[in-house]
Amino acid sequence: MSAYGPEHPRNLIPELCNQFYHLGWVTGTGGGISIKDGLKKSQCTPLFMLAYKERGAGAVIHTHSPHAVRCTLLYDKEFTITHQEMIKGIKDAKLGRFLRYDENLVVPIIENTPFERDLAGSLGEALRQYPGTSAVLVRRHGVYVWGDTWQQAKTMTECYDYLFEMAVEMKKLGLDPAFNPEAQNKPVN
Ligand code: ZN
Question: Ligand 1 center to residue 5 CA distance, Å?
């Protein structure tokens, strides 16, 4: 028996890693979780520190989710989607509230670098250019998501992942995830 409770990072981080492994978010050497206070050092730590410093985050999750990676191959500088229920699970830091289902969700995409630590410059720049975002996609690599608490970071990572997968599937069907159905005239019958 552990001397720590189930929500102590010593128990929580392995538990979350186990869940994320089964979701395909963290496999091989990829991905990680950081929770403020008592966090384990990892290769990603300087990047996690950016979200703590720039955003006052309480937790950061980094995944190599295939859905996130595929999205970075289908979009140029920004991922955009609208009119999806799961958008309501994403908090906009600039607005200080969760988005509505019919609002635009935008996630900046930065270019990958041969060494993960070298992402710090462009990640910091994306945080400044997109003061509302709680995620940054990295091309052919994955996504960083942060929240006020580990629970919020986890929930938002799940919502983002759903939306990334949805966007990929929509594009495969020839549908535009950024299309606003309310801006069009409804068909006559
Ligand atoms: Zn990574």
Answer: 29
Tens digit of pLDDT for each residue in 61-88? 999 999 999 999 999 999 999 999 999 9
What is the 170 CA–ligand 1 centroid distance (Å)? 26
Q: What are phi and psi of 92, to 5 degrees?
A: -95, 120
Q: Walk me through the domains of the chain, giving residue ranges and CATH numbers.
A: 9-173 (3.40.225.10)
Rounded distance from Cα 182 to ligand 1 centre (Å): 38
* Rounded-to-integer distance, Cα 43 and Cα 115, Å: 10
35 within 8 A of 58, measured Cβ to Cβ: yes
Catalytic residue among 7, 15, 85, 169: 85
Catalytic-residue membership of 158: no
| pLDDT tens string 150-183 | 999 999 999 999 999 999 999 999 999 999 998 8
